[in-house]
């Protein structure tokens, strides 16, 4: 086995990433590492972090790379919520939280600082990713989202079982404090939800009722295990015809990473025998009748096939 095989083996543990210190321990020199950049055997990501696969790097790779580059950093806010598959979370900028007083700068990374990030609020993934727990991620989102967006994210996480009311109540009791970012919004928006059944977004409720009036029986938040092992929850599922009706944000509010994630999900749905039918919030408000007609036609076509 060559030394480059050892490099690949090490990198496979960290989403095809490795620290240069690990390569030096294998016996490579800094000069030999740089030569592998020129020969396209290695690719620099951050200072002290390299990849065995070329860019562009996907969101998870960027997140793991940041954690390898800054051992004290934790993926947080929208980035952590995205990794927990919480609705409306993806964003182009990667959020990292570091202890107050730690100065760092990474390309494409938005740095947050805090005095309060105990181990109980951090998850450690086997690939080297460190991220805030779902409950802590939602508390942090309260500092950067408006009320409707925060409510939508919290209700999505509650619907999917990503977070429990007990965990949200505990994080609020521990972190809400005068002057702490997100405290007022969390108290105002999240606290009143606890103890009540989670609800769908208003747009999904409108579509669900319209489809029922058309003689269909959509099931909200229907779970499905995809071929790649990921478990997803469909906005509205027509189980008999295997149609997944998804209500997405208006196009102007969708990031590139969100679109890419949706496309990858749709491919997996198709492999599982489901037909994804995506509509936007604008379709719901401006073209509801056409939306219902289209879904009903797809339903009949699938049943007749």
Structural write-up:
This protein has three domains: 55 residues, no CATH class; 124 residues, no CATH class; 103 residues, VSR Endonuclease (Endonuclease, Chain A). By secondary structure, the protein is of the alpha+beta class. It has a four-stranded mixed beta sheet. It has a three-stranded antiparallel beta sheet with strand order 1-3-2. It starts with a helix and ends with a helix. The model has no long low-confidence stretch (mean pLDDT 89). The chain contains 13 helices and twelve strands.
Rounded to the nearest angstrom, the distance between the terminal CA atoms is 53 Å
Poorly predicted regions: none
Quick one: overall form?
globular
Name the strands of the widest sheet in spatial order: 9-10-11-12
**Quaternary structure classification:** single chain
Series of secondary-structure elements, N-terminal to C-terminal: HEHHEEHEHEEEEHHHHHEEEHEHH
Count the domains.
Answer: 3
CA radius of gyration = 22 Å
Q: Could you estimate the helical fraction of the residues in percent?
A: 40-55%
Tally of DSSP β-strands: 12
Strand content: 15-25%
Q: How many strands, what sense, and barrel or not for the largest sheet?
A: 4 strands, mixed
Q: What is the overall number of helices?
A: 13
Structural class per helix/strand content? alpha+beta
The overall pLDDT average reads 89
């Amino acid at each position: 086995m060559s030394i480059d095989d050892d490099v690949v083996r090490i990198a496979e543990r960290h989403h095809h990433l490795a620290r240069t210190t690990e390569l030096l321990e294998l016996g490579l020199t800094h000069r030999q590492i740089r030569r592998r950049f020129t020969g396209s055997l290695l690719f620099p990501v951050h200072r002290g972090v390299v990849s065995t696969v070329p860019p562009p790097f996907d969101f998870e790779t960027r997140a793991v790379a940041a954690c390898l580059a800054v051992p004290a950093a934790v993926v947080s806010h929208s980035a952590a919520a995205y990794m927990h598959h919480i609705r409306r979370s993806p964003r182009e900028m990667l959020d990292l939280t570091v202890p107050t007083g730690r100065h760092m700068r990474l390309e494409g990374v938005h740095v947050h600082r805090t005095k309060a990030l105990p181990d109980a609020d951090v998850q450690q993934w086997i690939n080297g990713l460190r991220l805030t727990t779902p409950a802590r991620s939602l508390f942090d989102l309260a500092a950067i989202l408006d009320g409707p967006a925060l409510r939508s994210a919290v209700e999505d996480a509650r619907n999917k079982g990503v977070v429990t009311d007990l965990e949200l109540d505990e994080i609020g009791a521990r972190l809400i404090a005068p002057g702490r970012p997100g405290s007022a919004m969390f108290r105002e928006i999240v606290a009143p939800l606890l103890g009540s059944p989670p609800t769908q977004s208003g747009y999904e409720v409108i579509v669900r009722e319209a489809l029922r009036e058309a003689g269909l029986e959509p099931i909200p938040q229907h779970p499905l295990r995809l071929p790649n092992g990921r478990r997803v929850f469909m906005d509205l599922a027509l189980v008999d015809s295997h149609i997944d009706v998804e209500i997405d944000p208006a196009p102007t509010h969708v990031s590139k990473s969100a679109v890419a994630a949706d496309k990858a999900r749709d491919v997996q749905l198709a492999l599982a025998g489901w037909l994804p039918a995506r509509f936007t919030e604008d379709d719901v408000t401006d073209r509801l009748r056409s939306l219902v007609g289209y879904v009903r036609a797809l339903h009949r076509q699938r049943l007749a096939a």
